[in-house]
């Protein structure tokens, strides 16, 4: 367990990921409002200004996973970072709604390219026996950005959207410079692997079949998470608890700094099931607290099991994907997970909103808890059972030696 995680290169990738995700969280909560303020669009058309980014990211992830190691990790990383910067600068020149839509889509494409390459490089650079812990630290950079980004965005647009766009351009420039500083270890492909990648398109070229079942569980997790990300403030406003619930996401982000490193170390030492089953249970508990909440402070308290539930399930899933995937398929496998995650986020707001309109917030959150409970046996058959068998076999092998 003595292999070093915090190398110069890994620190570089964590910094770069922070800048990239910060850019995402500066714009995602503000684009619908910008479309409405600048062009007078209705809510549905304004929502498309946010959704097109996700569509662009999903589109390119389906393609980039196949070609990452064929083109080269360094080339794709730097190409994605350059396009990400150019797309961020382009917001300063928007003259029409159609132009906004185009830039949002292209920005999503650039985000998909750079983030897929960056995460593949960073996870590959981690020591195999400490990959869970390292992935937890890497995911904390996302937590930092998600905590700071929306708050900073609100402060900037109080001046003008121009300030917001200049901040996005600056952050993307820092990301582009940072990716130049890290050393990229390219994967050496065999001739057979190279020829297989060059072959015509098959379903297995778009998604990694081995990791697809777990990725579909991630999709369900992300759909459910939109019920919190999109509607917790609306729910609090309905209850007149907005002042207290303003602390929800800061508490969630703070708890991630405890839950993710702890979950990573437990995964490396005790196996992934020690983390994943409790994460499922705690995710359900967070929804039960939201459904029951007699006060705003109970809603804030729900952020704690949420951080130990949803907050650790995703990075631990990345660790599992890296563990069960051959090196030459890792980019595609991670891309499969992110496609499902992004797709869940993309459709989740509409699906959850549809449910809330018909049954109300309390019953909707009860339904979310029931769905999570149903995911426990699904995870068991998708991966948990195999993980337990592998851990038992490893234990027997250790005892015999």
- First-to-last CA distance: 19 Å
Structural class of the helices, strands and pairings?
mainly alpha
**Secondary-structure arrangement, i.e. CATH architecture of the largest domain:** Up-down Bundle
Average residue-wise pLDDT:
84
Largest sheet features: none
Return the CATH topology of the largest domain.
Answer: Growth Hormone, Chain: A
Portion of residues in helices?
over 70%
- The count of DSSP E runs of length 2 or more, i.e. the number of strands, is 0
Count of discrete alpha- or pi-helical segments spanning 4 or more residues: 17
Strand content: under 5%
Topology diagram in text:
Blueprint: H1 8-27, H2 31-39, H3 43-71, H4 73-90, H5 97-124, H6 131-157, H7 161-179, H8 191-198, H9 203-206, H10 212-229, H11 232-239, H12 242-245, H13 248-270, H14 273-292, H15 296-301, H16 303-324, H17 330-400
Helix pairs in contact: 1-5, 1-6, 1-7, 2-3, 3-5, 3-17, 4-5, 4-7, 5-17, 6-13, 6-16, 10-16, 10-17, 13-16, 14-16, 14-17, 16-17
Structural commentary:
This protein is mainly alpha-helical and 401 residues long. It has two domains: 205 residues, Up-down Bundle (Growth Hormone, Chain: A); 195 residues, Up-down Bundle (Growth Hormone, Chain: A). It has 17 helices and no strands. Helix 4 packs antiparallel against helix 5 and helix 5 packs parallel to helix 17. The longest helix has 71 residues. It starts with 7 loop residues before the first helix and ends with a helix.
């Amino acid at each position: 367990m003595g292999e070093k995680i915090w190398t110069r290169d890994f620190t570089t990738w964590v910094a770069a990921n922070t800048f990239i995700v910060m850019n995402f969280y500066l714009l995602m909560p503000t684009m619908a409002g910008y479309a409405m303020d600048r062009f007078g669009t209705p809510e549905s058309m304004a929502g498309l200004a946010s959704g097109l980014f996700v569509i662009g990211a999903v589109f390119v992830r389906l393609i980039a996973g196949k070609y990452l190691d064929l083109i080269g990790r360094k080339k794709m990383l730097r190409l994605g970072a350059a396009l990400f910067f150019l797309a961020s600068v382009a917001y300063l020149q928007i003259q029409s709604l159609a132009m906004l839509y185009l830039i949002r889509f292209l920005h999503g494409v650039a985000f998909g390219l750079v983030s897929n390459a960056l995460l593949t490089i960073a996870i590959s650079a981690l020591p195999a026996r400490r990959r869970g812990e390292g992935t937890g630290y890497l995911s904390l950079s996302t937590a930092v950005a998600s905590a700071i980004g929306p708050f900073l965005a609100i402060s900037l647009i109080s001046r003008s959207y121009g300030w917001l766009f200049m901040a996005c351009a600056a952050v993307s420039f820092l990301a582009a410079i940072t990716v130049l500083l890290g050393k990229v270890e390219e994967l050496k492909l065999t001739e057979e692997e190279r020829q297989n990648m060059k072959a015509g398109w098959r379903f297995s070229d778009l998604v990694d079949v081995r990791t697809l079942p777990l990725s579909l569980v991630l999709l369900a997790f992300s759909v459910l998470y939109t019920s919190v990300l999109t509607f917790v403030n609306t729910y609090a406003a309905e209850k007149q608890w907005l002042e207290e619930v303003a602390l929800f996401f800061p508490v969630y982000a703070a708890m991630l700094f405890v839950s993710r490193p702890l979950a990573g170390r437990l995964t490396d030492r005790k196996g992934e099931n020690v983390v994943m089953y409790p994460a499922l249970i705690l995710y359900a508990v967070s929804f039960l607290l939201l459904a029951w909440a007699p006060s705003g402070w109970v809603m804030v308290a729900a952020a704690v099991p949420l951080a130990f539930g949803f907050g650790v399930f995703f990075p631990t899933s990345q660790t599992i994907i890296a563990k069960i995937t051959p090196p030459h398929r890792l980019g595609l496998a991670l891309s499969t997970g992110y496609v499902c995650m992004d797709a869940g986020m993309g459709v989740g707001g509409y699906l959850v909103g549809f449910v809330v309109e018909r049954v109300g917030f309390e019953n909707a959150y009860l339904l979310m808890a029931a769905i999570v409970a149903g995911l426990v046996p699904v995870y068991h058959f998708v991966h948990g059972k195999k993980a337990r068998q592998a851990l038992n076999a490893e234990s027997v092998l250790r005892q015999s030696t």
